[in-house]
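thread from #wetlab-drylab

HS: before we spend reagent money on co-crystallization trials with pyridoxal-5'-phosphate, can we at least see a predicted complex? here's what I'd submit
DV: go for it
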Amino acid sequence: MLTSRSPLALRPILRSLVTRGYASNFRASDLTIKPRTSPPRVKSPKEQLAFGKEFSDSMLTIDWTREGGWGIPVIEEFGDLAISPAATGLHYGIQCFEGMKCYFSPSDDSLRLFRPDLNMARMNSSMQRLAMPGFDGGEMIELLKKFCEVEKEWVPKGAGYSLYLRPTAIGTHPFLGVDVSDHVKLFVIASPVGPYYPTGFKPVSLFADSTNKRAWPGGVGSFKVGGNYGPTILPAKEAMEKGFNQILWMFGDDDEVTECGAMNLFFVVQEGDKKVLWTAPLSRGDILPGVTRKSIIDLCESWDGIEVRESFPKMPEIKKASQEGRLLEAFGAGTAAVVSPIERINYNGYDINIPATGELTSKVWDELNGIYYGDIEGPEGWSVRV
Ligand SMILES: *Cc1c(COP(=O)(O)O)cnc(C)c1O
């Protein structure tokens, strides 16, 4: 009788779930590195690098099936994937990704990652939102370190240079039913990148879009799932044709500010004698929990003279602050650009002009870059040696 069983009697059931893959994990110690068959690719001079166009020699792949659980992690030659044209990832957007960077630190000749635990937690949450399996973030960080070590020649040196890492998960189950994917492929590719601002900050202009929405309460805006990005490309192209760099995404009847482009958005406003760093909160689930966003908030909370506010700024309030001379700075934040100063926002045909790159934007830029490259000892655990 079930009620008379001790909890221990449930163990065989749990064990069978584990061996069937439902709770299994891959282990970094199982990594297999396949020998290369072709010669290393030719690397472009670092000055010519453009974002995401060139890839390193290898990729890391791990397959999962419902039957067998996670397979063995493999580092193999970078190359095309063979997947069924019926794969769920190609039909129903069963796809999510991460963006992170490996930096060369001249202070001790080390390679470093920045807060990779946050990327792994976010990837787990994105995968689980798409009913894909979870994994052990710590094991994945060890694998990323091994991958960076194998690809160390691909980490360009110098201020602003890094090896951009793109962990990705896709449904590979060949099945046209709109259902849980029984086969998943997790892979990591790497692309050497140069400074986002080779000649100093280049402030951007934004079009506050009152028609198109990026995300909404109850939606999936807080997950890095591919389905959030494809639909933004056409509105972004239209905004560019009107002379803007990116879209400022709003939501709600009172035009709450959410994000810009694929970046989190910050304002600095003067209120009486205090300066407020203002950004949208994560609580409603329509904001991507950026690693850069969190790091900026963490830093500013530890600095004097700035108060952090996480609530939705409304565009009319931002316009009013600007008219009263209280809108001091505005910037986007994300791994690719770090911070992206904003000089103009067009809201319902009205141009809000923002003073040139401000004090806080520059301070955040210096501090984050200092930590990325190991010149500044950041908070414990932020800079992780490979
Ligand atoms: C990736 C992303 C960001 C920035 O996240 P980071 O972890 O800081 O790189 C912000 N907004 C959106 C919509 C994103 O996709």
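DV: The chain is about 20% helix and 30% strand.
HS: ok that's useful, forwarding to the group
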